[in-house]
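re the bet — no i am not wrong, look at it urself. input seq straight from the record:
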Amino acid sequence: MAGLPLLASLTCAVSLLPHSALAQPQEQPGLPSQAPFQAPLAAESSQACPDLTHWIRQTTSVNWTVEDWAALEPQLRSLQSRCLRNVEYYALLGAAQLNSGRLVLALESLERALLLDPQHGGAQIDYAQALFRRGELFSALSMNQRIIDREDLPTTLRPMLTERQRQWRSLTKQRTLRAEVQAGYDNNLNGAPTPSEITLTLSGEDVLLVLDESYQAISGPYMNARLSSAYREMAPSSQQNWMFDVRGRISEDEASDLVQLDGRYAYIRPSRERSWQVSGGLSHLMFGGKPLYTAAEASAQIASQRVLSSCTPFAGVASQYQLFHNLNTFNAIESKITVGVNCQSASGLNAQRNGGLLGGGQPQSSEPSDRQWWQRMQWTPTVNILHSEPIKNNRPGNRRTGWQISLDWRLPIWSGTLNAQFSHTEMDDSDGYNPSLANNAEREIDRSYALIQYRLPVTSQTTLQWNAFWQRQHSNLDLFKSRDRTLEFGVQYRF
């Protein structure tokens, strides 16, 4: 993330300063010297709570490390029953927990400190950092701005806090540009049927028709190239995403080359109870150098923020207008109803509930990095109801209805990420497809596919990628039986 070195140095600078002396004392006649950033200790608390000065002095050492913060935290925690009303204690405990990676505990301690004294400067600075790490970007921005606006802010801290504010605010508008190149091998570049011969029904009799080689599966190597750009703009209560993508594939079989253009816009509105989004997009596909189809899509989705056994449910609807160039009888409107659950680790759910959707940064988990592999998994099962309505009544097969089940699975492993997608779809026509195919039988199709992908970042901008794809389509009509297997390797570069 841009700006991490500066943010780390700011956290270190704030933490190293004594939490009882973050501003220069201003003496007043008749009053003891007291820092404006310091809250006086309650009398009954100061009698029971030990003097924290020696710990505060230790944290100011230039040699103080994360390990030292981690060692200090249990020592301070053992004193909690004696320091329940001591703001300096909770500010220092929160700093120790924040700098040793105990984010949830740090938030609790710093909130307690701010309840005792809402104007405690050290607790405010650390609390803003903790909010940012949890993914609550706009809450962190608001708190940080309140600190900057304080008249008693030490001049040595103002430049660092102002720079932190600038870097955090830059995350509300993000632009990305990615280029990707892949090389692979496909056993069915042209999507041809698997059988080399099909059965036709002519004059009531079955006749075998041997397919010409150009209509049979063509295998061979290929190259993929992809360029995608995205822009994300965030506000305290909403988010807007724009995406444009162009990709192409070339191979020795020029008739199978393709180019696809995609553009999409999404508006997201989250809340503590639920989040919803509406989106729209356009897609255009050219196959063999000729336009094949253009599609326009609109969709809406709502997701509950309530967790059901580490899963959050969601539901959505989508509708797509499909225009097939030079094949007007295939034009249709395809609709889909979706229900599913998004299941992930507790840290991921916390980030989502507390602003991870709009955070714009990379919230840091407070969970240990050595969790077992099953504790790092994320998976999203969905069920879809499908319906395809033809624009014209003479489309072969007329209406199509069906269902689909799918599973997206993700696991961080071996310094990279293993992703998998599985899907099974069944679609049935309402009318006979063609009198020459199985006596005008109503077409039935079931299709299954699996995609296994491993992504390995090698630098902050470069990622290696391996993909394996398998698809099988079965039908009661031989013409629609097919198989496809693909292996590919590529590299992605983020500008």
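see?? The longest strand covers residues 416-432. told u. also Confidence is low (pLDDT under 50) at residues 1-46, 347-369. so pay up
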